[in-house]
Amino acid sequence: MAAAFSCPVFLPSTFSYNENRYHGRIKIKINATSSTKVKTLNEIAGAGKGSSSLATSTEIGHLSQEQIRQRIPTKKQLVDPYRQGLIIERGVGYRQTVVVRSYEVGPYKTATLESLLNLFQETALNHVWMSGLLSNGFGATHGMVRNNLIWVVSRMQVQVDHYPIWGEVLEIDTWVGASGKNGMRRDWLIRSQATGITYARATSTWVMMNEKTRRLSKMPEEVRDEISPWFIDKRAINEDVPEKIVKLDDNARYVNSDLKPKRSDLDMNHHVNNVKYVRWMLETIPDKFLESHQLSGIVLEYRRECGSSDRVQSLCQPDEDETLTNGVEQSLLKNMILTPGIMEGNGYLGPLDVKSYGYTHLLQIKGDSKNEEIVRGRTRWRKKLSTLPYSS
Amino acid sequence: MAAAFSCPVFLPSTFSYNENRYHGRIKIKINATSSTKVKTLNEIAGAGKGSSSLATSTEIGHLSQEQIRQRIPTKKQLVDPYRQGLIIERGVGYRQTVVVRSYEVGPYKTATLESLLNLFQETALNHVWMSGLLSNGFGATHGMVRNNLIWVVSRMQVQVDHYPIWGEVLEIDTWVGASGKNGMRRDWLIRSQATGITYARATSTWVMMNEKTRRLSKMPEEVRDEISPWFIDKRAINEDVPEKIVKLDDNARYVNSDLKPKRSDLDMNHHVNNVKYVRWMLETIPDKFLESHQLSGIVLEYRRECGSSDRVQSLCQPDEDETLTNGVEQSLLKNMILTPGIMEGNGYLGPLDVKSYGYTHLLQIKGDSKNEEIVRGRTRWRKKLSTLPYSS
């Protein structure tokens, strides 16, 4: 049944804008304003199987409908006009052009960290989508599905030099590399499309978990054969020694307890999405600090999944000493000196100010006898130059 | 200063995919990997003003940077390759092609209502963006800004026949029309790009408010002159008599109190975004019902803005009697009979089942002496055919 979709309809290299464009549409006469002759998706599914355009078969399972509607490529694609994506870097990297949408920005018209994390997830999945390796899961390859394996993220680091603003056109590059024997690294770069200036960079490491046993797994040979041809030895962030994040305890300065995952926080894997974790972390920092500071960097170390019934506690602790001591902060400092424009406040780039502020974070599940760590984090902040709204 | 941007660089009618594409980029030599010669955005802004490409002026205010980065058109544009948008309907309607992103879907891989509402907001703003009328606010025209006016939504109605799934390509049409003497109607249609089938339809009414006095305003002549040439007399939803939504009181079956807007809930207008209101409404419905039902329609009547310091209470009440009595439900029922595929459960379209379930909603600010209504709502639901995840 999947054979019908082995060659999904993608328009090659140009995207024609035409009011009556129906390229790639399954050729069934649809009159959307006529109320009695609308075809159901079931009928369309029948037609998509090669039967006549008047097919009314209702025997089609939902998988074929899903395939018609999603059109996941089963072979490598070089361009995707709908996603505005293309394969770069000698055939193994991915670049996508995106516009910062109105609902992806906060009160100052700048993209939120959450939006950037969402775009990282989206471009990563679209990279796998284009590769022809995507099975019907959350980024898992065909070989992974055969072995009941899913991806889990173990570490994520993001540096934001400039926050994109509403309506700005961005280019996001992403690529993968080896990480130890059984892991994978995925990096991202966000650039302004208009100027080429780098706005943000990120790196992450991923390992495989058995979906049934929930235990970490070695990378099977068949999976290595799928993904290793895509590895590039290039890094978005140069970090010699990954920073160690101390574990907070009940003495932490700020504590937010009894956080409950909601239905809307669950993603396709039926887990609380990582982006939600970051929201819980940042919401624990006092409003007064958040109003006058802007996040410049974050490191996350994931320890454990969080399910929909868990009750979560968020702890955070500001650095007592504002001197810059450890690895991440030094690399951040270096970056700040090299990029004089880093001190962005609401779109205005002012004079160099190297002072930065750090917080240590912990999300944990509060248990009767002991607590279980979900994620440890470090955030770095710079002072905003103005707390006025971006416009008006 | 705005003159420099009166002719934003948009690529006409074709979108060339080229790895080294720099069309539309401000021609400044940028070497993103070289660490010492990166130009700051201030320097770019200087260059954008017509000075030499080596300009290092730092006197540029943030407005010019914002203009370079946003490139809001000051004249009508017919196509926007970055937004995949084009002007249709004899020059006054707008169509945008979008792909359902991985973070816009819930656990069943179907787009959430929140995502649809976000896409409505986005396409509406992009419509104004293309018109050349957009000033530097949240959809306000130049004439509105001159009169200190902003848009406020007074009513919103959405019908969802099919939920789009992750990766699906959609076409969203939106247009405006007159609503009484001082209001504007905005409608939307969401279609599958592959089949042309309509998935969702929506209509909304908008009035103008004085930004300073917070009082509703008549539509000034200069604003009418701007927007009335864009009016189309066409409706996405035919509704003869708008349903009256009863006001709930403390006897409502389900009550969720002490809801607090968070920083991340504020939009560009520094208000709690409408989408957040819907989340608060839906979260008050018991999980057990939400797990087995899918939202098919919603009507919202906005009464009052909600600020960041308000404490909000969400009430809801299921219909006692499942017979379909009022206007909206009858039009919904009619729609269901005409579109046999409406009973979608997780992508599977099963046999016709006209039974639907209704809830009445109220969000209010709990005051010491009296409560203040924020929004009244009605939701309609259909039973899911399966509560299993979409895939696996």
From TrEMBL, chains A, B:
One GO CC term on file: chloroplast
Protein name according to UniProt: Acyl-[acyl-carrier-protein] hydrolase
Keyword Lipid metabolism (UniProt): yes
Locations listed in the record: Plastid, Chloroplast
Organism annotation: Gossypium harknessii
Entry's family note: Belongs to the acyl-ACP thioesterase family.
Pfam family, one: Acyl-ACP_TE
Domain called Acyl-ACP thioesterase N-terminal hotdog: residue spans: 93-227
Source taxon at top rank: Eukaryota
Main location: plastid
